[in-house]
């Protein structure tokens, strides 16, 4: 079942997805920020330390530098907000963060 999902994801039209996401965000008066997602799952959104050892399990993130502990997806979202310069908002507060690799979408 997972291989079918992976194939489906690889076959997806990411350009079309980006257009739909951007259009929906504009309609809802939201901001879409496109940026590099590389290492966002291994980078601490509190201190910026990056290590594969920070990702203890699939769902648990514990920074080996500062001890920050939270759900891995929440940490990665915070890292993306930091990269976008939006961390001071304290939450997603109307921002759609679309992390993409440079290879996925050429702008």
Short description:
The chain is of the alpha+beta class.
Descriptive overview:
This protein has 107 residues and is an alpha+beta fold. The protein has helices at residues 2-11, 14-27, 72-84; strands at 31-36, 60-62, 69-71, 95-100. The protein has a two-stranded parallel sheet. Strand 2 and strand 3 form a beta hairpin. The longest helix is centred in the N-terminal third of the chain and has 14 residues, at 14-27. The radius of gyration is 15 Å and the shape is flat. The chain starts with a helix and ends in a 7-residue tail after the last strand. The model is unreliable at 91-97 and 99-107 (pLDDT under 50).
Low-pLDDT runs: 91-97, 99-107
- Total helices: the number is 3
For the terminal residues, how far apart are their CA atoms? 32 Å
Approximate strand percentage: 15-25%
Give me the strand/helix succession. Answer: HHEEEHE
Mean pLDDT: 78
Share of residues in helices: 25-40%
Question: For the largest beta sheet, what order do the strands appear in spatially?
Answer: 1-4
Biggest sheet record: 2 strands, parallel
What's the number of extended β-strand segments? 4
Judged by helices, strands and strand pairing, the structural class is: alpha+beta
What is the C-alpha radius of gyration, as a whole number of Å? Answer: 15 Å
**Which shape, going by the Cα principal axes?**
flat
């Amino acid at each position: 079942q997972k291989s079918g999902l992976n194939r489906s994801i690889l076959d997806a039209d990411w350009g079309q997805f980006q257009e739909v996401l951007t259009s929906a965000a504009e309609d809802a008066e939201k901001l879409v920020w496109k940026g590099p997602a590389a290492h966002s799952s291994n980078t601490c959104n509190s201190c910026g330390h990056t290590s594969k050892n920070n990702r203890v399990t699939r769902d648990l993130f514990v920074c080996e530098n500062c001890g920050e502990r939270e759900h891995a997806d929440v940490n990665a979202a915070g890292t993306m907000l930091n990269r976008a310069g939006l961390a001071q908002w304290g939450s997603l507060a109307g921002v759609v963060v679309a992390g993409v690799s440079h290879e996925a979408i050429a702008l």
